[in-house]
Amino acid sequence: MKSLRILYLEDDPKDAELVQETLASDGVECHVTRVETEADFIASLEQGGFDLILADYTLPSFDGLSALKIAQQKWPHVPLIFVSGTLGEEVAIEALKIGATDYVFKTRLSRIAPSAQRALREAEERIDLIRAEEALRRSEAYLAEAQKLSHTGSFGWDVSSGKIYWSQETFRIFGYDSLTEPTLERVVDRTHPEDRAPAFPDEHCEPGGLGSNRLTLHPVLASS
């Protein structure tokens, strides 16, 4: 594991040193930046580069819950773990609901290394998921543009449910509004009369009658 950059919201330097020593003894190499105030907390995050946030729950001029909310607003990709000696169970549960990754009591610092490793692993998984979703959206946008330029539509068919899905270009080709529910009957209605019989035998006019999810689209009638 690379050397971690940790932002630690903690007013007691000795507690911060103890946490860093505990992490090091468990094989987690890290560089800890300790801050005590809201201004320093925000300024440090704006500089960037942190892998993990540790936060005490109660400080003289700031508090961990406020820090969590600030981090969630602008730096949601950075996991936050509460490290406190005053965190009650109800508060801890509320913190987890808001977005904290975990909480560790100062009297049980043996949990800090496993907690940090899990937080980093989950953060990486979230980033991978976001990247995959962005790639999918780009791919769908490219496909939609390609279909628009080539006047080629596409569709999907869930055989188990009979539900049909059309691309935007398929709606345009068939002359239907995009809010229209796609059905096989509407495809038949837009198919040239001479092609309806071979393309859509009577027993195949219902989604449940087809044995596969393949369908050949024949010439269609342009909508008026």
Can you describe this structure?
The protein is α/β, with parallel strands linked by helices. The protein has two domains: 4-131, 3-Layer(aba) Sandwich (Rossmann fold), CATH 3.40.50; 151-224, 2-Layer Sandwich (Beta-Lactamase), CATH 3.30.450. Helices cover 46% and strands 15% of the residues. It contains eight helices and seven strands; from the N terminus they run βαβαβαβαβαββααα. The chain has helices spanning 13-25, 38-47, 64-74, 89-98, 112-150, 168-174, 184-189, 193-199; strands at 4-9, 30-35, 52-55, 80-84, 102-105, 155-158, 163-166. A five-stranded parallel β-sheet has the order 2-1-3-4-5, with helices on both faces. Helix 1 links the parallel strand 1 (4-9) and strand 2 (30-35). Residues 203-224 have low confidence and may be disordered.
Q: What is the strand and helix layout of this fold?
A:
Layout: E1 4-9, H1 13-25, E2 30-35, H2 38-47, E3 52-55, H3 64-74, E4 80-84, H4 89-98, E5 102-105, H5 112-150, E6 155-158, E7 163-166, H6 168-174, H7 184-189, H8 193-199
Order of helices and strands: EHEHEHEHEHEEHHH
Terminal CA distance reads 65 Å
The CATH level-2 architecture of the largest domain is identified as: 3-Layer(aba) Sandwich
Low-confidence stretches: 203-224
Rg on CA atoms, Å: 29 Å
Total E-strand runs? 7
The assigned structural class equals: alpha/beta
The total count of helices amounts to: 8
At the first level of CATH, what is the class of the largest domain? Alpha Beta
User: Mind telling me the CATH superfamily name of the largest domain?
Assistant: Response regulator
Oligomeric organization of the protein chains:
single chain
Write down the overall mean pLDDT.
Answer: 80
Question: Which sheet architecture does the biggest sheet show?
Answer: 5 strands, parallel
Strand order of the largest sheet: 2-1-3-4-5
